[in-house]
């Protein structure tokens, strides 16, 4: 069976057309041109992925070029961080270059434009120039210095270069058209005076080229064939081409600028200036704070290059800006960590459990599977003893028949260990439970194959042996902003939406195998989520960051649409209800059909089928879906489709009940990786 070909995105179509029209494939060259004025964030991964992805597709070189034209904001620290991030994502650049490499060439070209009467020195204040520039609907006004002689302009420009003037006293402007409908073409600034130390050239220069003048000319010097940038630069394309017109020689590669939609993420700030503000005001603990959307922050939080690249690939290349739900990024990291993260046991909110009939002083080392998704992951030994810690939420004194965790008089299995039964509790003076007393079935050890061990119970709990437990610190992160679009409010500052509870530090207990964990190691704390070892960890204290939970706990609560009883008759209401029921049944029928063939589909078609199921799920009620919870285990596809549908209903505001919890738990305990992944996501 031949591999299914992915359709070309619009940038690939442009390149294919150029090749078809005679461009030599050997002339293809791309670049990623960050400004070293901050750390790269998740939004940059799209630009990185596009440029380096095209390089991989066409076996073409990709330069890493730092557009370092503003010494007031640029630092070597940012250069080093950017190189580290691009390498960590798995990309290799052809040449490491800097716009500052071309300062002399850019200066020489500027002199050429002055001599040709296409550039002049303006000595107005910035306020005066702003007034003369006009508006999008009103033409600008010529500067009183626009018609200076070539000789005077050359003299002033050289004196600017030699440091004779103060900052703001003169600038060099291109002489284009002050009445041009595109305001960027109204005599744009090419050079300004900045008497600041440059991170590479030191004090050699005190005039620095503007971005628009530098960008295209640097592309030309490097023989870049396709200069790819985000949509906000589309109005700049006309100026990009005008500047190139002044310098491009016959027989050389002329760069072509094309624009794509930038990556915007919900609940996230993408402005480097605003991210810097978070750092400087101490809202976060640096650019690599795990709450930050920077690549270094995501890396420290436990994200993987594979997950980020999969996210960028899933988002795709578009021509229009849109906002991507951050839950898609979280889904991608769950998918990746589910495959690679070892399973371990940790208790985050411990309560003491004593097995009263377990022999005093006895301890056992039980076998536990490291990762059921990875056949090569093997097994480890975990210690078991009379006194354990379990999660406080995993116990109720009194519970109904649909509660599948530990309760008095009920049985559960301890993961990789025995079946226990709740017998009694001990409380403090305030009525808080301090101890849970249980009995265990000594013949029920998991994995022994005896009749008793194969006895089924509906709940499985994780635990750690108190005698062997390692005390550690967990940093639980929530979203940094409580608003979906924190910087879109004209009447409010984005800082007003800071989540005061974005970081919670708790003392936890983990199994002793984690003593060997190293900084950056990633784990699934069973039934809790994915965690990694933080940079602050030491031999004295293990510190874990929560990367992401097993389920999306930030699902939107959408109100269901209801028909007003006041607006139509009772007969009409019944008709509406019948029509709704019919649509629901039809949608559920299609969902079941999609589920039947789901596991046999290639990945691309699975994603398409999943999207169809999610759309159909909007017309399904919980009452119609609930009977599918009892679908036979062998009908994995139908169970996956049911789980996807359930996820949509939960996002619409459906509250979890015992049946839902049980269905999800069955999915998590299943051997099918696709079903486990969907169960982890709801």
From TrEMBL:
GO terms for molecular function: ligase activity. Residues 28-338 form the Glutamyl/glutaminyl-tRNA synthetase class Ib catalytic domain. Residues 341-441 form the Glutamyl/glutaminyl-tRNA synthetase class Ib anti-codon binding domain. Belongs to the class-I aminoacyl-tRNA synthetase family. Residues 460-534 form the tRNA synthetases class I (E and Q) anti-codon binding domain. Residues 125-145, 557-584 are annotated as: Disordered. L-glutamine binds at residues 67, 211. Residues 573-584 have a biased composition (Low complexity). Residues 560-572 have a biased composition (Polar residues). The keyword NADP does not apply. This is Glutamine--tRNA ligase. Keywords: Aminoacyl-tRNA synthetase, ATP-binding, Cytoplasm, Ligase, Nucleotide-binding, Protein biosynthesis. InterPro entries: aa-tRNA-synth_I_CS, Gln-tRNA-synth, Gln/Glu-tRNA_Ligase, Gln_tRNA_ligase_bac, Glu/Gln-tRNA-synth_Ib_cat-dom, Glu/Gln-tRNA-synth_Ib_codon-bd, Glu_tRNA_lig_a-bdl, Rbsml_bL25/Gln-tRNA_synth_N.
